[in-house]
């Protein structure tokens, strides 16, 4: 989690989103642990997920997801972001991208 992408009152916002959903995951409807309840394990933790992954938009779309659903939601987006960062890193290092499917005229 990159804290610089989140507003200073993010803990309050996240708690309000979770409370508005009655501490249930909107994807699988699992009842998750409320603040102060006995810790049952990571699978019962409710998180606040960015659905659109655009942290700088005027209106940010977030939802209450359990940890498993949050990871499932972020998996394809995380892969794409890692690939993009790797391409930028290589380009800045001076490496050229080659089209592997192109035929070479030697």
Quick overview of this protein structure:
This protein has helices at residues 10-20, 67-92, and strands spanning 46-50, 62-66. With 106 residues, the chain is of the alpha+beta class.
Summarize the topology.
Blueprint: H1 10-20, E1 46-50, E2 62-66, H2 67-92
Antiparallel strand pairs: 1-2
- SSE order, one letter for each helix or strand: HEEH
Q: Could you give the distance between the termini?
A: 48 Å
Unreliable segments of 5+ consecutive residues: none
User: In DSSP terms, counting alpha (H) and pi (I) runs of 4 or more, how many helices?
Assistant: 2
What does this structure look like?
It is a single chain. This protein is α+β, with helices and mostly antiparallel strands and 106 residues long. The protein has one domain (3-92). 35% of the residues lie in helices and 9% in strands. The protein has helices at residues 10-20, 67-92, and strands at 46-50, 62-66. The protein has a two-stranded antiparallel sheet with strand order 1-2. The longest helix has 26 residues, at 67-92. It is elongated, with a radius of gyration of 19 Å. The termini are far apart. 9% of the residues are buried.
């Amino acid at each position: 989690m990159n804290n610089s992408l989140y507003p200073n009152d993010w803990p309050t916002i996240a708690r309000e989103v979770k409370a508005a959903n009655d501490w249930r995951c909107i994807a699988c409807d699992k009842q998750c642990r409320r603040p102060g309840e006995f810790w049952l394990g990571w699978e019962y933790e409710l998180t606040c997920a960015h659905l659109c992954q655009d942290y700088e938009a005027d209106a940010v779309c977030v939802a209450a997801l359990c940890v498993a659903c949050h990871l499932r939601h972020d998996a394809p987006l995380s892969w794409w972001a890692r690939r993009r960062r790797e391409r930028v890193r290589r380009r800045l290092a001076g490496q050229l991208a080659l089209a592997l499917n192109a035929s070479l005229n030697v």
